[in-house]
Write a structure and sequence with these properties.
Layout: E1 8-19, E2 22-33, E3 37-41, H1 48-55, E4 63-68, E5 71-72, H2 77-80, E6 84-87, H3 99-109, H4 114-127, H5 143-155, E7 161-165, H6 173-188, E8 192-196, H7 200-206, E9 209-214, E10 217-222, H8 224-231, H9 237-245, H10 256-263
Parallel strand pairs: 3-8, 3-9, 6-7, 7-8
Antiparallel strand pairs: 1-2, 1-4, 4-5, 9-10
Helix pairs in contact: 3-4, 3-5, 8-9
Length: 265
């Protein structure tokens, strides 16, 4: 962690990731503090997914370092996972387990006592309105239900860090509000939240700070109010985004970070 910053939970220092001749993340330095919600924004191919996958220890950096709670995300991945809750954009589950069995398995893998698993599962399922589906097989879950199940798994052990990748995709407005309320509550309780989204208005309202990536580099960092004042006075966070991105967006099908994700590397 950074010296003199004991509340830094996520620490990226000069993080770089190359795929062949393409630099997906270019010398990214960024911190997320305890009880802070940081939005990660950027057009397709900007490096958001690659950054999250390095934080998860799924990808090793080409250079630089990524740490969670002072632990190296790649070298100490198993220890890092005890501190992290992760919600992927498209959750995948073993389909012939029920939702309740999947959550219990996640809790057991975290070393949680059985009674705490039951208590937390019931509370989260009620808040996210899928308690009636806990006995259903995951194969029968809609995309929105899978998101709710994955969020319950991510929040079950009250992690120090929540990594949320497009968390409200597939959710209806009621479920979206419930998710956002839970995220705020966890941040207020001390969790550091790394929130990757393309919904600029949502980021503006929810997040304490915003980091905008463009072509792998950190293009802007600050509170939503600071960014509006510095880059789009009198405008919105959307105006800030387009001021930086200049309407440039890489097609999702050709972005190296997306090809790697699809290949499961």
């Amino acid at each position: 962690m950074n010296a003199g910053e004991p509340d830094v939970v996520v620490d990226l220092q000069s993080l770089r990731k190359n795929f062949g001749g393409h630099c997906a993340v270019d010398r990214l330095s960024l911190t997320v503090h305890k009880d802070e919600i940081l939005a990660l924004l950027g057009p397709n191919g900007a490096g958001k997914t690659t950054t999250i996958r390095m934080l998860m220890g799924i990808l090793s950096p080409s250079s630089g370092a990524a740490q969670v709670c002072g632990l190296d995300c790649f070298q100490e991945r198993s220890r890092v996972m005890q501190h992290v809750g992760y919600l992927p954009d498209e959750p995948m589950f073993y389909e012939h387990l029920s939702g309740g069995e999947i959550v219990r398995f996640c809790g057991t893998m975290r070393g949680m006592p059985d009674d705490e698993i039951v208590e937390r599962t019931e509370a989260l399922a009620q808040r996210l309105s899928f308690a009636d589906a806990l006995d259903e097989y995951a194969v029968n879950y809609s995309m929105g239900m899978r998101k709710k199940l994955a969020l319950a798994c991510a929040m079950l052990h009250r992690p120090d860090v929540l990594l949320l990748d497009e968390p409200t995709n597939g959710l209806d407005p009621v479920a979206t509000r419930a998710l956002l309320d839970l995220v705020r509550e966890m941040a207020e309780a001390g969790t550091a939240v790394f929130y990757s989204t393309h919904l600029l208005e949502q980021a503006d309202k929810l997040c304490d700070r915003v980091a905008i990536l463009h072509r792998g580099k950190l293009a802007a960092l600050g509170t939503p109010a600071e960014l509006r004042q510095d880059l789009a006075e009198g405008g919105s966070l959307e105006d800030v985004f387009f001021e930086i991105a200049d309407g440039d967006s890489t097609d999702n099908s050709s972005a190296p970070e997306d090809r790697v994700e699809e290949a499961g590397e």
